What we know:
The chain is mostly helical. The protein has 4 helices and no strands.
Amino acid sequence: MIRKNPDHRDPEAIRRSLATCSRMLAVIDAHLAGSGGYMCGDTFTLVDIPTGLSIHRLRSLQEHPPLSNISRYYERLCERPGFRQYGRDGEP
Length: 92
């Protein structure tokens, strides 16, 4: 993780932030286990856009927990042409 601003380099604050993020991801992972594939069921909805973008951003961190439902969800989102083009920053 790169932090250029000295005000954002506190190792303890970073550790707390990553721990909080991991807990939130675990909640999403548990939700996806019984949701039908997307956040609101078996159909892609508006809520999947910010959720998918957030997960994409978090996957770029060096430290992220391996959560199988989120991994499958992210793969499902990546099957969508719009998400591949805009949600993944044009990455393959």
